[in-house]
Amino acid sequence: MASLADRVVPDQLLFYCRPGFEADVATEVAERVERLGWQGRAEFIEQGGFACFVVDDERPANELHRQLKFEQLVFARQSLVALAPMGLNRDDRMSPILAQVMTSGWSFESIWHETPDTNEGKALAGLIKALTRPLESALRKRGALRRKAGGRRLHLFWMDGDFVQLGMSFPGNRSELPGGIRRLRFPSAAPSRSTLKLEEAWHEFIPRDEWSVRLAEGMQAADLGAAPGGWTWQLVARGMHVFAIDNGPMKGDLMATGMVEHLREDGFVWEPPYRLDWLVCDIVDKPARVTAMVQRWLIRRWCREAVFNLKLPMKRRWEEVDRCLVLLGEALENAGIRTELRCRHLYHDREEVTVHVRLLD
């Protein structure tokens, strides 16, 4: 390992994202960092699938990473402390990587090779496979890759075959999914692929060991904007009884289950006959209008938990999401309602984000 005087100190954070959302990650991170009292600049390449925040002051980026909680970020799929990216020689890609790792003084328990979520990134699979074992062997011999290193993980983010950036992640403040992507298999019986958005939301927001209690058979739910039934299908598959609210038709065999009551009504004005366990909503409308509707449900305690999507504008997407979340949070607080509130741009989302709210009282 390098001596303390010779070590390279990481001066930036690296975030993965859906290609096309680099500016949104950069804007969100820059605002959150400013609120924390740090100085720096956000950098990204359009359609690159990642963004960086370079710290200007002399504090190491590790400290900022601890303060910037991954679970609070909306548009980032992964959050890493990172070193400066490196250009590589095709004749010897390993030596510069080994040198930077050793100079950093980093130690870790595992190594993940990752690429942007692009066709160009997927084309690097062969190169990564060829480098994986030799690199692990070399780092293990040098003591950097070892059994007990606090759960730390080294990430090699390959932007192309000649360009890589090294990052470090830490348990409790990262995604545990390669590339930050949760890939789910589409259930063939579901009426639409939108079903995966609700399934991913449950994985993202509800601990797996709580599913039997919070997603239990016999619960009551409402699906606003239900047609053709992708989200209703998920609820029924968990054994819930569902009010499916939509003027459009429901597809598939959902109605034959006897667990769905399809009401051809406006989801924005419909009111449940009694308190439900779940509200889910994937209505295509302005984010502010959807947020206001869900706010009414929560303040009147018509449900215990809610998952809903906000369709994003073409520009200033982070600003719109932040505005909706702040207004919702303030309204619930002013009403004296304690909640858990999280928001994430999920892998199966497109031009939308998914919000989860749970009443704690």
Automatic annotation (TrEMBL):
It is an enzyme of class 2 (transferase). Pfam families: FtsJ, RlmM_FDX, RLMM_N. InterPro entries: RlmM_FDX, RlmM_THUMP-like, RNA_MeTrfase_FtsJ_dom, rRNA_MeTrfase_M, SAM-dependent_MTases_sf. One of its GO terms (biological process) is methylation. Its main location: cytoplasm. One of its GO terms (molecular function) is methyltransferase activity. Its EC number is 2.1.1.186. It is found in: Cytoplasm. Residues 192-251 form the Ribosomal RNA methyltransferase FtsJ domain. Keywords: Cytoplasm, Methyltransferase, rRNA processing, S-adenosyl-L-methionine, Transferase. Transmembrane segments: none annotated. Belongs to the class I-like SAM-binding methyltransferase superfamily. RNA methyltransferase RlmE family. RlmM subfamily. Monomer. This is Ribosomal RNA large subunit methyltransferase M. The gene is rlmM.
